[in-house]
Design a protein that fits this description.
The complex is a heterotrimer of chains A (170), B (475) and C (283).
Chain A: E1 2-8, E2 11-17, H1 23-30, E3 49-52, E4 55-58, E5 71-73, H2 86-93, H3 103-116, H4 122-128, H5 140-157
Helix pairs in contact in A: 2-5
Chain B: H1 15-20, E1 35-41, E2 47-53, H2 55-58, E3 63-68, E4 91-92, E5 98-104, H3 107-116, E6 118-123, H4 130-133, E7 156-160, H5 163-169, E8 172-180, E9 192-197, E10 203-207, H6 212-222, E11 250-253, H7 270-280, E12 284-287, H8 290-296, E13 299-300, E14 303-311, E15 317-329, H9 335-345, E16 355-363, E17 369-370, H10 377-394, H11 399-406, H12 425-436, H13 442-446
Parallel strand pairs in B: 1-12, 10-11, 13-17, 15-16
Antiparallel strand pairs in B: 1-5, 2-4, 2-6, 3-5, 7-16, 8-14, 9-10, 9-12, 14-15
Helix pairs in contact in B: 9-10, 10-11
Chain C: E1 5-7, H1 12-21, E2 26-29, H2 35-40, E3 50-53, E4 62-65, E5 68-72, H3 77-82, H4 84-89, H5 91-98, H6 103-106, H7 111-116, H8 123-130, E6 134-139, E7 142-147, H9 148-153, E8 165-172, E9 178-185, E10 196-205, E11 208-217, E12 224-225, H10 229-233, H11 240-253, H12 264-280
Parallel strand pairs in C: 1-3, 2-3
Antiparallel strand pairs in C: 4-5, 5-8, 6-7, 6-8, 9-10, 10-11, 11-12
Helix pairs in contact in C: 5-8, 11-12
Classes of the chains: A alpha+beta (170), B alpha+beta (475), C alpha+beta (283).
C-alpha cells in the first residue's frame, strides 16, 4: 500500500491505495465522491469521466498513484458559488438525460470539450462525445444541451444577462 | 380553469439530482460495514456438481460468510414456472450459473475466497441451438424435457378458421423464415444489490429492479414465505425476535435505475445479497462487472419464425400459418408469458380468416432470457412486416395497397376472438403516407376503418363478411 | 503486499536498471489504457510486484532535429494530434492518432504503448509503418535503434528484453512530394477499434509514383507493409484502375482472422476497397 494525496474539487484528500488501484475506486469508495460511475471498468463507456489537471480522463483506467498530487474535477466540482454551471442548467432544461447514469460523465466530457472549442458545430459535439455511451436517450437532447450551453457560455462572456431557469418543481 | 400541468412543459423532478451528480443509485448507497459479494459461477455450460467444499474459503481472513444451494430456504422460484434455482444444487444448466457466493470485508478477500472454494464438476454435453434441442435425442437441458408443456401440448396455439381450406383457396403461397437474434440490454448501470439486515429483524434491499412487486413476490418465496427459517441465519440476525421473513419483513427499495429496458425485471443479484445478509448479519453489496452483465444477465431471446401465407391475386391474405420458436435459455423465466403475447399478435393487424400459430418455448444451455422493450412483439412485427412485403412482391402489388386491403377495421374479430371497435389503422397509414410524401393509390386514399358491413368495401373485388368465430381454439 | 513497489523514476537509465533487476512480476505503466483494463479484471495472480511508471521520465517531447521528427514514446495521441510539428512534418501520424479511441483515451494513451501493446489493430503502428519510422530502445548499457517495421511485423520476436524501455520514435520529415492517406474503418464513426485500417505514403514526382509504402492494420496478425502493391504503382501515374489493382494486391497479402468485431471474409474485402479509396484521395 502507498499513500496517495490528490486535490479533488479544490479539497486535499489522502488515501491508502495499492499498485493497481484505479482513480474511480479512490473517488467513490475511499472519498465517497459518487458522481463518477462504474459502467465497464475498461474505459469504454465514459460514465467515469473526470478532469485530471483540466484534461478529460477515464477515472476507471487511470492508475491512482500515477495522478499523485494532481487536481481532479468531478461533476460535484462544476458549479461555482452554488450556481449551476450552464452545462448542468442546459442538460436540465433540454432533458439531456433519461435514467441519468451516463450524465455525470457526459457533462464532464462536454465541459472538457467546450473549454477547447467554445463554438462547436453539431458534428463536432457528436465526435467529442463519441466516447460517452448513453443507452436511453439516442443522444439528440444531449447534443442539444451541449450546443445550448455553448451559447449560454458565450452569452455570459459577452456580459449578457442570463435567462431564467424555466420550469418548476411540482 | 387554469391548468397547471396539462399542456405545460414540465422538467423532470429528479433532473436537478442527475445534473449535479447527487442521484443515489444502488451503488451510491453507503451503509457502514458493507461487505463485498462475489460469486462462484459455473465454468461449464452443462454439468453435474460432484464436490463443493467451502472450508478453505471460509477460513480466509476477512470472509464473513459463504452460501450455497443448501443455504436457500426455497431454491426454486420463477415468474410463473417455479423452476429456477438461486444457486445450482447438483445440475448446472448454463455457463455462469451461480454455485456459491462469498461476503467479505474487501473485494480482494471476496475474490480470493471464491478461488479457494473447491469445486468439482462433471462436464456434460450441452445444446445451444433450439432446433437441435427440439430433436428427441437431444441432450436434456431440463429433466422434464427441452420444450415447455402448455396444457396438453408443447406449444401455445392460436387457431382460427381452417388453415388447409385457406391454402386451398389461395392463388399463391409465400413461405419464409425469419431470425430475430438475441440482444443484450447493455444498460450503463450493471446489476447491483445491497441487502441490509435491520435491527427489527427486517431486511432492506436496495435493488435496481424495474419490477419491484414481481421481484418481491419471488423473493418472498425464496426467503421462506413466512416460515421459520432462522436456523439458517447467523450473526446478529439470530437474535432478532423475528424468526420468519414474510412479505412485510422485506423492505424493497427501488425506483432509481441506471437503465433497465427489461434487463432488470428478473431477479439477478438480490437473492444472493439477501441470503448473505441474513447469514452474516452484515450489509452485503454485489455489483456485477460488465463482463458478468454481458455474459450472464438475462438477454432478449432469439426468435426463429416461419411464415406461410396464402394470398389471392386481389391481395387478400386468406391464410397465415406461423411457427415461432423462442429460446428460453436454461430456465423458464418469463418465457411462458412472452410466448402468449407473441402468439396473440404475431400475425399482425390484419384481417385473415384462416390462422394457425404455434409458439414453442425451447430450453437450451444458454444464458436465461428475459424481457426487453417490445417483449415478444417486436420480433413478430419485424417478421410479419417483411413477410407482407414479400407477399406483395409475389403478386406484383404495391406494399401500401396490400396493407390497406388486409388491414383490420372496426367490427373485425382477431384470431384471438377479440372484437375490434376503435381501430384506425387505415387512417393512420393515410397520415403516414402523407408525411412520407407517398401518393397512395386512389382506393387506398378513399378507404376508412368503418365496419365492413356498413359500406361497400372499396378495395377488394368480393365483399368479405366480418369475421366471426367459425371454429378453432386458442390453447 | 510487502514486496509491492510503485517506482516513478526521473532518469531513463535508472528506470532501465530498476526493470533489469527483475524479481517478481513487473509491469510498465505509461497511459494505462491497455494495462489498467487488464488489472481491473482482477484475475487472481494478476497483480504485479513492481509497477514502473514512466510519467516521471517526461518522454513526451515532440521536436524536429534536422530532417527527423523526434517523438518521445510517452507522447499521448492527443499530444501528437495537436502538435504543429507533427501536423506539418508527419500529418499522417497526426491524423491517425486523432482518431484513436475518444478524447479521454487520447489524453492518456501513448504512441509507445500503442506500438508495444502489439495489437493487430494498432493505428499508431500502422501509421508509423507507412512513415518508415524507426524507434530507439533504451537499456542500461545504452540505446539501440531499429525500424518500427522490424519491431512490429514479426509477431514471434520480442525485441524488448527485461531492462529495456522504448524511448522515442524517429520519423523522416515528409516533403511536399510525399502524398499521404489514412482510412480507418469500423463499426462506428467515433470511439471504435479498427476493423480495417490503411495508411499510405507515396512519393509523387512529375506525375510518377515511387517509394510507395502502403500499410494495413487489423487484417493480419500484425499491421504490415505491402510487399506487392508498391511495384504496381512504381514509376506510373496514380489512376483509379491502378489504385484498384493495388487494393487487390494488399487484400491478397492480408491474412485476417474472425473475431468479435468482424469476420475474416469481410476484412479481406474491405481492405481492398479502403486501399483504393486511400490512394484515390491522397493528400
Amino acid at each position: 500500500m502507498a499513500l496517495l494525496e490528490i486535490k479533488v474539487n479544490g479539497a486535499v484528500h489522502r488515501a491508502e491505495v495499492g499498485l493497481t488501484t484505479n482513480l474511480l475506486e479512490v473517488l467513490r469508495e475511499k472519498l465517497h465522491i459518487m458522481s463518477p460511475k462504474f459502467g465497464c471498468e475498461s474505459g469504454d463507456c465514459g460514465a467515469c469521466s473526470v478532469l485530471v489537471n483540466g484534461k478529460l480522463r477515464r477515472s476507471c483506467i487511470t492508475n491512482a498513484l500515477s495522478v499523485q498530487g494532481c487536481e481532479i474535477t468531478t461533476l460535484e466540482g462544476l458549479s461555482e458559488d452554488g450556481d449551476l454551471h450552464p452545462l448542468q442548467k442546459q442538460f436540465y432544461e433540454k432533458y439531456g438525460f433519461q435514467c441519468g447514469f451516463c450524465t455525470p460523465g457526459m457533462i464532464m466530457s462536454a465541459k472538457a470539450f467546450l473549454d477547447r472549442n467554445p463554438n462547436p458545430t453539431d458534428d463536432e459535439v457528436k465526435e467529442a462525445l463519441a466516447g460517452n455511451l448513453c443507452r436511453c436517450t439516442g443522444y439528440v437532447t444531449i447534443v442539444d444541451a451541449v450546443l445550448s450551453a455553448a451559447k449560454e457560455l458565450a452569452g455570459k462572456l459577452a456580459g449578457e444577462p442570463e435567462g431564467e431557469l424555466a420550469g418548476e418543481r411540482g | 380553469m387554469e391548468l397547471k400541468a396539462v399542456g405545460k412543459e414540465k422538467r423532470r423532478y429528479e433532473g436537478l439530482d442527475h445534473v449535479t451528480g447527487t442521484t443515489r443509485y444502488v451503488d451510491d448507497v453507503i451503509v457502514p460495514g458493507t461487505h463485498v459479494v462475489k460469486a462462484l459461477r459455473s465454468p461449464v455450460h452443462k454439468g453435474r456438481i460432484i464436490r463443493l467444499d467451502t472450508t478453505r474459503a471460509e477460513q480466509l481472513p476477512g470472509v464473513a460468510g459463504i452460501i450455497t444451494a443448501a443455504d436457500v430456504p426455497c431454491n426454486s422460484y420463477g415468474f410463473l414456472t417455479l423452476d429456477q434455482p438461486v444457486m445450482a444444487e447438483t445440475d448446472v444448466r448454463y455457463k455462469g450459473e451461480p454455485i456459491a457466493a462469498v461476503a467479505a470485508q474487501t473485494e480482494d478477500a471476496a475474490i480470493e475466497a471464491v478461488e479457494l472454494i473447491d469445486l468439482e464438476i462433471e462436464e456434460q454435453t450441452p445444446v445451444f441451438d433450439v432446433l437441435e434441442a427440439m430433436k428427441p435425442d437431444a441432450p436434456k437441458v431440463r429433466p422434464e424435457g427441452n420444450i415447455l408443456q402448455i396444457g396438453d401440448k408443447n406449444y401455445r396455439s392460436v387457431v382460427f378458421g381452417d388453415i388447409e381450406r385457406g391454402f386451398d383457396e389461395a392463388d399463391e403461397v409465400v413461405e419464409s423464415d425469419y431470425l430475430f437474434p438475441s440482444q443484450e440490454h447493455a444498460c450503463i448501470e450493471t446489476q447491483v444489490s445491497l441487502a441490509v439486515p435491520e435491527s427489527d429483524g427486517r431486511l432492506t434491499i436496495y435493488s435496481v429492479t424495474q419490477a419491484l412487486y414481481f421481484l418481491l413476490r419471488q423473493m418472498n418465496r425464496i426467503l421462506g414465505q413466512g416460515n421459520d427459517v432462522s436456523e439458517r441465519w447467523s450473526g446478529r440476525m439470530q437474535y432478532s425476535y423475528r424468526g420468519t421473513l414474510g412479505y412485510c419483513d422485506i423492505k424493497y427499495v427501488g425506483g432509481t435505475v441506471g437503465g433497465g429496458f427489461g434487463g432488470k425485471t428478473d431477479l439477478h443479484a438480490d437473492p444472493i445479497t439477501a441470503l448473505l445478509a441474513l447469514k452474516t448479519g452484515k450489509p452485503c453489496k454485489w455489483r456485477w462487472t460488465r463482463e458478468e452483465e454481458t455474459l450472464f444477465s438475462t438477454r432478449h431471446s432469439p426468435w426463429l419464425m416461419s411464415f406461410k401465407d396464402g394470398v389471392k391475386k386481389d391481395g387478400r391474405i386468406v391464410a397465415r400459418e406461423v411457427r415461432s420458436i423462442h429460446d428460453a435459455g436454461a430456465h423458464t423465466g418469463m418465457s411462458s408469458y412472452v410466448v402468449d403475447k407473441h402468439c396473440f399478435y404475431v400475425i399482425g393487424p390484419y384481417h385473415i380468416p384462416n390462422v394457425l400459430v404455434k409458439g414453442y418455448v425451447v430450453y437450451t444451455n444458454r444464458t436465461p432470457t428475459g424481457a426487453i422493450r417490445g417483449f415478444g412483439l417486436t420480433p413478430g412485427t419485424f417478421a410479419s412486416e417483411i413477410q407482407i412485403d414479400k407477399v406483395a412482391e409475389r403478386i406484383g402489388m404495391d406494399p401500401w395497397e396490400i396493407r390497406f386491403i388486409n388491414a383490420v377495421r372496426n367490427g373485425d374479430q382477431l384470431a384471438t376472438r377479440r372484437k375490434l371497435d376503435s381501430v384506425y389503422l387505415i387512417e393512420t397509414m393515410q397520415a403516414l403516407a402523407e408525411w412520407a410524401g407517398v401518393t397512395l393509390p386512389e382506393k387506398c386514399a378513399r378507404a376508412n376503418s368503418d365496419p365492413r358491413e356498413a359500406e361497400v368495401w372499396p378495395l377488394a373485388e368480393t365483399m368479405e363478411a366480418p369475421l366471426e368465430w367459425t371454429g378453432g381454439t386458442v390453447s | 503486499m510487502l514486496n509491492q513497489r510503485f517506482a516513478s523514476p526521473t532518469d531513463l537509465r535508472e528506470a532501465c536498471s530498476i526493470l533489469g533487476q527483475g524479481g517478481g512480476r513487473t509491469a510498465i505503466l505509461a497511459g494505462g489504457t491497455d494495462l489498467m483494463p487488464r488489472f481491473n479484471r482482477r484475475r487472481p495472480g494478476g497483480r504485479p510486484d513492481l509497477l514502473l511508471y514512466l510519467g516521471g521520465l517526461h518522454l513526451d517531447y515532440i521536436r524536429v532535429e534536422g530532417h527527423t521528427l523526434v517523438i518521445g514514446a510517452c507522447a499521448t495521441h492527443e499530444d501528437i494530434a495537436d502538435s504543429s510539428h507533427v501536423r506539418e512534418h508527419a500529418p499522417l501520424l497526426a491524423k491517425a492518432c486523432s482518431e484513436i479511441g475518444s478524447p479521454a483515451i487520447r489524453n492518456a494513451g501513448t504512441i509507445g504503448g500503442n506500438v508495444c501493446n502489439r495489437a493487430s489493430f494498432a493505428d499508431g503502428s500502422t501509421a508509423l509503418l507507412a512513415l518508415d519510422a524507426s524507434m530507439v530502445i533504451a537499456s542500461e548499457s545504452g540505446d539501440r535503434i531499429m525500424k518500427v517495421e522490424d519491431f512490429v511485423t514479426n509477431p514471434f520476436m520480442t525485441y524488448l528484453k527485461p531492462g529495456m524501455i522504448v524511448k522515442e520514435f524517429h520519423i523522416p520529415v515528409m516533403l511536399p512530394e510525399h502524398k499521404w492517406g489514412w482510412q480507418k474503418w469500423g463499426q462506428r464513426r467515433g470511439s471504435f477499434i479498427s476493423v480495417t485500417s490503411v495508411a499510405a505514403c507515396i512519393k509523387i514526382q512529375d506525375g510518377a509514383c515511387s517509394s510507395a509504402r502502403i500499410c494495413a492494420g487489423a487484417v493480419a496478425p500484425t499491421p504490415f507493409v505491402s510487399k506487392t502493391a508498391p511495384a504496381i504503382l512504381e514509376g506510373r501515374p496514380l489512376s483509379e484502375s491502378l489504385a484498384e489493382k493495388a487494393g487487390v494486391a494488399v487484400s491478397e497479402e492480408a491474412d485476417p482472422q474472425d473475431d468479435t468485431r468482424a469476420s475474416a471474409w469481410y476484412r479481406k474485402r474491405i481492405v481492398a476497397i479502403l486501399v483504393k479509396r486511400t490512394l484515390i484521395a491522397l493528400a
